[in-house]
Structures are given as C-alpha cells and as structure tokens.
Amino acid sequence: MLSASNHRPARPCKTLAERSAREFVAKECPELHYASVNPGLVLGPLLDRDVGSSADLIASCLRGKYPGCPCLSLPVVDVRDVAHVHRMALESGAPSGARYLATSGAVWFKDLMSPIKDKLGIRARKVPTRELPDFMVKLEAIFDPASRPVVPDLGIEYRIDNAATCKALGVQFRPHTESGPAMAESLLQLGLV
C-alpha cells in the first residue's frame, strides 16, 4: 500500500543528517546561521515531471492502485508553504539552531483523498475514499513488503502543533483540502497519470 517514507514524520537518515549538519556548524562554521525545517508529507503543485514519493502516492491513488484507504494519520504540508518556511527561517532574526515544524497538521488518509475526488470529479474516479479494515492492510503486508512499514501506525492519530512555527515565522499554512487537489491536478496536467 504505502511505504514508510510516505507517511512517517521523521526517518532515521533525516535525523542523522540534521545531527551531522548541526555538528558541522558548531565545529566548523559557528558564524553560520543554521535552522532545521522539518516538513510532513509534501503536497501541492508540481513544477515539473521529476516527482518524489508524495507525488507517487497521489498518482498511485489516481490510477486506482489501492482499493481503499488504510487507517493512517499523515502530517501534511503544501510545497509552497515549505518554501515559505525556508525563506522565513533564513530571514529570521532567531538565534541559530532553531527548528521549525512545517506542517499544516495531520489528516487521516481517507480525509486526504476525499477533497481530491470532490474537486477533480470524474478525473479522480479511481481515488479511494473508503477506509480499509486494519486486517486487510495487515493481510496485504504479508504479500507486499512495501505495505509492512505502515502496519505499526494503523489507527494511530498524529497530533501536530505548528503554533511555534506560525508565531516565530509569521506563516499560515494552506489546508490539505487545497494542497492535495493541487498536487493531483498538476499530476494530470503533466500527463503523469
């Protein structure tokens, strides 16, 4: 169904990369202003045909690859907001070392799919909107190794508080009801579905 990179808010390699960057700045370039921006599942319009795992997930849903939605909670963010957070973090007078959560919040997988289907109409007819029972996802995971990483997260709701980022950088995040359909629309316009 979904790979771990499609839904986990932090991966060990990202954690190690951030730690390495912080250590480098502390030891080699202490005068450098450093900030970390940690995004959720990145949605929104695509610039070109070079897509990442988030767009692959939405494209798979548009193609009808999945019969339903796993009971997964996903932290999401619009790509335009991620760019804005990066810019504001660079321009911020905050002390070096700040960390910013770039996400509009968490949304259940089926609630991410519904606005795509609603806004794109017949072009999104294959997009799943019904939730799959956990046992079906677990059964699929027996045969599909890509589904296995999501099993531990089934039914777990992420609670996201982006208030510190909003306050520190003066940003307002677009809702998933805008960024999900925007990504789906751009996938269709670029002929990737």
Give a nutshell description of this structure.
The chain is α/β, with parallel strands linked by helices and about 190 residues long. It contains 7 helices and 5 strands, in the order αββαβαββαααα.
Characterise the protein shown here.
This protein has helices at residues 12-28, 53-63, 79-91, 109-120, 134-143, 163-169, 176-189; strands at 35-39, 41-43, 73-78, 98-102, 105-108. The chain is an alpha/beta fold and 193 residues long. The strands form two sheets. The protein has a three-stranded mixed β-sheet with strand order 2-3-5. A two-stranded parallel sheet has the order 1-4. Strand 2 (41-43), helix 2 and strand 3 form a beta-alpha-beta unit. The longest helix is centred in the N-terminal third of the chain and has 17 residues, at 12-28. The chain is globular and about 50 Å long. The protein starts with 11 loop residues before the first helix and ends with a helix.
